[in-house]
Amino acid sequence: MGFSDGYLLSLTTVSLFFSLSIAFFPGYDTHFMGPGFPYEAHPLTGLCPEYYQFTCPQADKIVISVLKEAIAKDPRMAASLLRLHFHDCIVQGCDASVLLDDSHYIVSEKNAKPNKNSLRGFEVIDQIKEQLEEACPSTVSCADIIALAARGSTVLSGGPTWELPLGRKVSKTASLKGANANIPPPNSTIQNLIALFARQGLDQGDLATLSGGHTIGVARCVNFKQRLYNQNGDKKPDETLERSFYYSLERVCPRTGGDNNISPLDYASPVKFDNYYYKSILAQRGLLNSDEVLLTGKDQFVAGLVKSYAEDEALFFDHFSKSMVKMGQINPLTGYNQGEVRKNCRRVNDAF
Ligand code: HEM
Ligand SMILES: *[C@@H]1O[C@H](CO)[C@@H](O)[C@H](O)[C@H]1NC(C)=O
User: Fold this and answer.
1) Which residues participate in catalysis according to the annotation?
2) I need a surface site. Which of 171, 240, 266, 295 has the fewest CB within 10 A?
3) pLDDT one-digit tens code per residue, 311-339
4) pLDDT band at 44 (very low <50, low <70, confident <90, very high)
């Protein structure tokens, strides 16, 4: 309480200072900040939904039009872009570090174990960036583009929408180590998952809710093979796998080889953003170990949410929106002296 009180107090002081300075210097143009500045900024992160209201009002429209085309060509793209936002945010915060290619200065996160041969959507982000650079040069950051693409992909898949705080600058560094250490592996236990989310300020509720992103998209055999053939080092399948589901997975994912064969994360409705992911978990048909342990991992709170979401899609949508906003505000770079707005999402501006 003390912290936020102090914070509000200083915010008020700053606002007062602003109003006064504007009153005394009437020629001072505050228009670019938006009418409510700084009241509408998120109290902790400085992001706000109206960030591009005057500098690039058409930003979201451009994002959506590129997404529509990309998803029409490849329905899985919506899932890939949603995942990209997660993998951006849990490494150094939502700073578009995930988009940087290898260079003299950068060791790309794209080669981290969870990302290599797996993370997709970079070309779509490039296309969006290109169009945005034409419409509003050097204005919309690559981290905001990822966040807008994740929301747009959710909406275009039939899921909820939310007011999206914007104004992230992007980093000039990447962290391969951070990607390997912070992105949860698919064979995580519930304790691992809770711990890895907690590192990012995300709680058990966020874990149950954001895992619902797996209502769209696919996983490769290599990521669920352990469950089929050697779950506990005893050469036996995971006993929580429903039997006919097990047999169908066995056909896609043989004991040896076939590592890149894919299977839907939500077999009941793989391209629709709905609550069937949770119904599948209740039917013991969650694909990854990290999906099934939300129910079987003996965390009563998380398991309770899985059941609630399976029953009540509106509740899931409401919580998902809130948790996405929260995840999207992990450690953003804001302010004039932090980060930059890249011209090309794959490299930092002063690289040569
Ligand atoms: C809770 C911990 C999580 C784990 C252990 C996990 C793990 C995975 C794995 C292993 C894959 C398949 C990758 C491959 O086989 O190439 C995957 C795919 C995916 N993940 Fe997660 N994930 C987690 C959380 C999330 C979150 C929070 C989101 C978004 C809100 C998300 C969205 C997705 C999507 C949409 C896909 C499908 C991507 C595609 O088809 O291209 N995941 N995840
Ligand atoms: C998860 O898989 C990795 C290999 O990919 C293995 O080293 C690790 O022991 C597994 N963890 C669990 C909890 O089974």
Assistant:
1) 87
2) 240
3) 999 999 999 999 999 999 999 998 777 89
4) low
DSSP string, 250-275: HHHS-SSS-TT-EEESSTTSTTS-SS
Q: Name the pTM for this structure.
A: 0.90
Single-letter code of the amino acid located at 96: A
Residues annotated within the binding site for Ca(2+) are 88, 91, 93, 95, 97, 109, 215, 266, 274
Which DSSP helix (H) or strand (E) runs through 191?
Answer: helix 190-198
**Structural domains of the chain in order of their starting residue, each with its CATH number:** 59-181 (1.10.520.10), 185-327 (1.10.420.10)
Backbone angles phi, psi at 49, to 5 degrees: -60, -25
Name every residue whose Cβ is closer than 8 Å to that of residue 310 and which is 6 or more positions away in sequence: 275, 278, 279, 281, 282
Q: What is the pLDDT of residue 350?
A: 86
Regarding the beta carbon of 185 and ligand 2, being less than 6 Å apart is answered yes
> How remote is the CA of residue 192 from the centroid of ligand 2, in Å?
12
Among protein residues, the one with the nearest Cα to ligand 2's atom 10 is: 187
